[in-house]
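Sanity check record (used in CI):
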Amino acid sequence: MRRGVHPALFYSMFVLLLGGNALQGTALLMAPDIARLLGGQNEQIVTAYEDRLAQMRVEIDRLQSRNYAQAGDINLQLQELSAQQEALLEQHQLVRALVTKADELGLAALGGVDEQILYAPTTANGNPDVAATAATVVQMMDETQQAMSDIASAATERTASIVGELSKIGIEVDLPRTALSGVGGPLLAAEGSSDQTSPSLEDANAVMEALLQYKAARDSLALAPVHMPIVGNFRQSSGYGNRKDPFTGGRAFHSGLDFAAPTGTTVLSAGEGVVTFAGLRSGYGKVVEVEHGNGLVTRYAHLSAFLSQKGQKVQTGTPIAKVGSTGRSTGPHLHFEMHRADKSVDPKPFLDTGKRILSMLN
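Expected output for Murein DD-endopeptidase MepM/ murein hydrolase activator NlpD:
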């Protein structure tokens, strides 16, 4: 038979537990914060906690401000790079226009900007890559500069070649003056950090001036009588200067170049000009004369037919007559003369100059 807990022992244990709880409650009441809170000092406690929270908010705001500043710097960098890209895109279009103009003038297509680099790269998460974007901007600037430099160099070099070659035969090229550059004004302190005129725009203006100079040189080449007056099946049968006369056998002066060719072969104007004579001359038979300016006149003789008339404006290569054997001639050929200030000069240096220039241009 089991025995239960004695009532006296049970009540004794209950009294001990109750007393322990009372002592613990008294200790809690003696705790400083709780005692002040229960004693009516709760406002001080709340104020202290609020001060601590305010300090924490200040620290959080400072950290957030730093993050915002860093994010702002990145956004500012991206905005600046985006503005530079837009400007470079416009310059790219300008370079394209200059290249097209150069092609029209016979210059090979030179340089250009790789269109694959015209757009800002992104990171793996799709955000703009600031460093890579900056690198593409630098690459675009370099390629734009190189393209314009190539065009200007080619145009300037060829202009100098044409002018130099024509000057050797006494033909002066009238090149356009460069753009007016007069500037002035009071000396004032600079404002801002950037100039109104970008270096690329100045480079583009320089390229355009170089192309205009080259165009003027090419136009002078078209005016100059330096082009072959005959094409097809022909050969030079006699040169300029003293030779054995084909009729008398004695020494005589020959005032032009002879090109033997079949009767009816087309004769072309050696340069741009105006037909000043189309008719008969003693010893020459049927003759066409073209005035080219600069005191230069070309004469085409021993013709079989006229394809032009006095007063007609002709271009380089315009058909003006046909080969024949009229006048003092032993057979069908073109007698080609060059006159400067009413005095005959050797046509060969003129034709050789034309061949060299055309070879260079082609």
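The helical segments are 7-29, 32-38, 42-104, 130-168, 199-223, 348-361. If this sentence no longer matches the regenerated tokens, the check is flagged for review.
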